[in-house]
Amino acid sequence: MSNIIRTFIAVEIPDKIISSIAKVQEDIKTYGFKIRWVRPESIHLTLKFLGNIEAADAENVGRAVCEAARAVAPLSLQAKGIGVFSGIRRPRVVWVGITGQLETLGRLQKTLDENLAAIGFPKEKRPFKGHLTLGRIQKKIDSKTFIEALDTLGIFETETFTADRVVLYKSELKASGAVYTKLVSAPLA
Known about the structure:
By secondary structure, this protein is of the alpha+beta class. 29% of the residues lie in helices and 38% in strands. It has four helices and nine strands, in the order βαββαββαβαβββ. It has helices at 15-29, 58-70, 102-117, 143-153; strands at residues 4-11, 35-37, 45-54, 75-85, 93-100, 131-137, 161-163, 165-174, 177-187. The strands form two sheets. It has a five-stranded antiparallel sheet. A four-stranded antiparallel sheet has the order 3-1-8-9. The longest helix is centred in the middle third of the chain and has 16 residues, at 102-117. It starts with a strand and ends with a strand.
C-alpha cells in the first residue's frame, strides 16, 4: 500500500504581517458574507501546490526546494490590496495581494517549477500570481455590497517584510480546517 501525502511549497509570512491580515479578515467578516475563512496561522504565499505525492518523493522534492532557495536572496515584500478570483461578478476566493520584489519572486517560483519538472512534476500552466488567500466564498454574495466592502478595505497594506525561507508543507485536511506540517524549510541564499 502506498503512503500518500498532500503537499505544497510556500513562502512563510512573518507573524507581525499575519496579525495585520487577521485584522482585515475580521473587518470583512463584519459584512456577514458566507466565506470559509483561512485561519490566520495558516496563511502563506503558495509557490507550488503539488497535491498528493508519494511520501518517498518528499526527499527529492525537498532537494528541489533547497536548490531553488539557494538561487535567490531574501526578498522584500509587502501585503497590499484585497481582490478576488474569478472576478467580482462570480467571486470564489478572497485574497490579499503581494507587492515588492515581484520579479525576483517570479524567478524563485520559475526555478522551483523547473527543478520539480526535472523530477517528474508537471509545470504550472497558469502564470504565477503571488497572493495570500483569506477565504473561499461558499454561497453567492451580493456583488454591490461586496464591491463596497472591497472599496472600503481595498486600501489595506502592511509594512514591508523580508521573505527569507521556502517551506515544503504536508497538508492534512480535517473538519476544523487544514493542518500544515513543515517537512523542509530552506533559507533563501
